[in-house]
Amino acid sequence: MPDLSQIVKAYDVRGVVPDQWDETLAELFGAACVRVTQASAIVVGHDMRPSSPGLAAAFGRGAARLGADVTEIGLCSTDQLYFASGSLDLPGAMFTASHNPAQYNGIKMCRAGAAPVGQDTGLADIRDLVTEWAENGPPPASATEGTVTRRDVLADYATHLRELVDLTAIRPLKVVVDAGNGMGGHTVPTVFEGLPLELDALYFELDGTFPNHEANPLDPANIVDLQRRVRETGADIGLAFDGDADRCFVVDERGEPVSPSAITALVAARELAKHGGGTVIHNCITSWSVPEVVKEAGGTAVRTRVGHSFIKQEMATTGAIFGGEHSAHYYFRDFWNADTGMLAALHVLAALGGQQGPLSGLVAEYDRYAGSGEINSTVADQAASMAAVEAAYASRQGLELDHLDGLTVTGPDWWFNLRPSNTEPLLRLNVEARDEETMGRVRDEVLTVVRA
């Protein structure tokens, strides 16, 4: 049996199929999820990867074997699964490996109402049960096994999103969307139907082998086609979704990428105006622009660690109306505190179409500083490299150091965050400053120590 500690991470299960896990294990995960969540019913969906339908069906068999009624929603985006979990008030399981290569697959699990299943909120218990049953045999079946039914929730998902953001009165926009052969090709046509949007579709054919490029827009190489098409066609905006379409990246009318921090600030301002104030969550590597805009819009900004489970927990604790991460995950109270790239995209389209200027001018208000983007460095000893960087800055006057997530050092006109990867021998560096020259100087200084 594979080492489950290597494929069960903070909030999901992810590994190579069938080398690290297969349908036999998926069935055990279904049973364990029902046991831990004490669910009498559960909703299951999957993406377009070749292994996804079989894994999802196996998970459903395991859940039904322990007495839970299973609702299969079939092909869906991850945020469509969250919609089903929230609207039906059922625990859910989404089979996807998001932006990872084709040979990978995984499960993202949630409790009823799309509440997260994290390491401390059930995932470790699920892992332990699966380990026990894989070694000693599966649990006995329930006296009454659950039913398995099919349900299509795509239209209801689209209706819910369009009720949250009204685009019916915006000026017509030409929009290029690169779905990367992922689930955006499934959801975008239905969500955009009937809106004043001229859709130019790139790679909408569902294909989990990703024949055109990886479904990971965070890598600049994977948005080149989108940028080219926007420039060639004179489009107003370009959108790129990742494999399971829970993240959305934006390029402006010049084909230039828009920082996810700027999108976070823009959407935060709109949500604060809609709700008359409130709390907005941002992680420790989003731009200074985010808390500044939140304060200017009458809201309260709360800084937290990087990661899905931390953001969702903080949103639940504070009653936040919105949360954003620099990885282009956007969380909404009106969407059960879950992340949905599609809803963020609708906000951007509404803001753009509600005025006459180009997107580059609109987002300039929210993109105030020079950022490095995330820079990865392979290191032999993460702890030693982190300690060396901290030692280099700890004795300097006028700096603030904190350890909310890795190491953050803040100066009068710059900051950087250095975090170890949980899955690879990497350190991840993000730097921001008031100007490009200062940002470059700080970036190079930190990297010199990291890579010594």
Automatic annotation (TrEMBL):
Name of this chain's protein: Phosphomannomutase/phosphoglucomutase
InterPro entries recorded: A-D-PHexomutase_a/b/a-I (IPR005844), A-D-PHexomutase_a/b/a-I/II/III (IPR016055), A-D-PHexomutase_a/b/a-II (IPR005845), A-D-PHexomutase_a/b/a-III (IPR005846), A-D-PHexomutase_C (IPR005843), A-D-PHexomutase_C_sf (IPR036900), Alpha-D-phosphohexomutase_SF (IPR005841)
Keyword Phosphoprotein: yes
Keywords: Isomerase, Magnesium, Metal-binding, Phosphoprotein
Cofactor(s) required for function per UniProt: Mg(2+)
Domain Alpha-D-phosphohexomutase alpha/beta/alpha positions: 6-133, 156-255, 263-369
GO molecular function: intramolecular phosphotransferase activity; metal ion binding
Classification of source organism: Bacteria, Bacillati, Actinomycetota, Actinomycetes, Kitasatosporales
Family note: Belongs to the phosphohexose mutase family.
Pfam families: PGM_PMM_I, PGM_PMM_II, PGM_PMM_III, PGM_PMM_IV
GO BP, sorted A to Z: carbohydrate metabolic process
Domain (Alpha-D-phosphohexomutase C-terminal) ranges: 374-447
Domain of life: Bacteria
